[in-house]
Design brief:
The complex is a heterodimer of chains A (132) and B (84). Chain A is 22% helix and 38% strand. Chain A contains three helices and eight strands; from the N terminus they run αββββααββββ. In chain A, β7 and β8 form a beta hairpin. In chain B, 20% of the residues lie in helices and 44% in strands. Chain B has one helix and four strands. Chain B has a four-stranded antiparallel beta sheet with strand order 1-4-3-2, covered by helices on one side. The longest helix of chain B has 17 residues. Chain B is elongated and about 40 Å long. The chains are: A alpha+beta (132), B alpha+beta (84). The interface between A and B is medium-sized, with 22 and 19 residues.
Chain lengths: 132, 84
């Protein structure tokens, strides 16, 4: 499962950022390599950050012994606005369930209240979740 | 990374069906993660644009390897935007 210390996170330049209220965000610093076409971020770059934000939040909720067993089952991305040539931030929240957990994340640039994309991911977290 | 690949496959499927480049934005992108993503092997992705209107393109697709027919499946919707 992708984490902040993964080669993918390094490749993208994604890092952890703690705001004034102590809340964890992921930060994807802007670079030209993230553009899908002139002036707009590639949807995959946005989705990659959102997916990593969910994985990170899920890992925070899970003991290290269970972490290897956590599996992402589905991802649903909704793109709300074009991503501009700016840094992108994402924050995720976890709704823990007995067997299935739901993680939602939003990515924004100018203002947190104006997300450019959101995602809902389902994770299998219950006992025996390594079987498929 | 997998999602970027699937998004790109979906995008190319739209342009292939259109027969030309036309800028569009991803509206919705749904992925079912069928198998754990393998490491050390090439992952390929296939997209099919199964419906097209003047404003919107609907795509389904999947990611696969030489060993596995489907590691993830895709359903995506793209909206055509104005100027490139």
């Amino acid at each position: 499962m992708s984490r902040l210390d993964s080669p993918y996170a390094h490749l993208m330049g994604i890092r952890l950022y703690v705001d004034a209220e102590g809340r964890e965000h992921l930060l994807l610093p802007f670079g030209k390599h993230l553009l899908g076409r002139p002036g707009s971020l590639h949807g995959g770059a946005i989705a990659g950050l959102l997916a990593l934000a969910c994985d990170h939040a899920m890992a925070r909720e899970t003991s290290s012994a269970d972490a290897a067993a956590v599996q992402c089952l589905t991802s649903t991305f909704q793109f709300l606005r074009a991503g501009r040539e700016q840094d992108l931030r994402a924050v995720a929240s976890v709704q823990r369930g007995r067997a299935i957990s739901t993680v939602q994340a939003a990515a924004w640039q100018e203002a947190e209240m104006k997300p450019i994309a959101i995602v809902t991911r389902k994770y299998r977290t219950g006992p025996g979740c390594q079987e498929r | 990374m997998l999602i970027t690949l699937l998004d790109m496959a979906g995008t190319l499927a739209v342009w292939t069906r259109l027969g030309h480049f036309q800028p569009h934005a991803t509206l919705d992108l749904r992925v079912d993660h069928i198998e754990a993503i393998p490491t050390g092997v090439e992952i390929k992705a296939y997209g099919e644009c199964y419906h097209l209107t003047a404003q919107v393109a609907y795509v389904r697709g999947h990611a696969y390897t030489d060993r596995s027919a489907t590691i993830a499946s895709l359903a995506a919707t793209y909206a055509f935007t104005g100027q490139p």
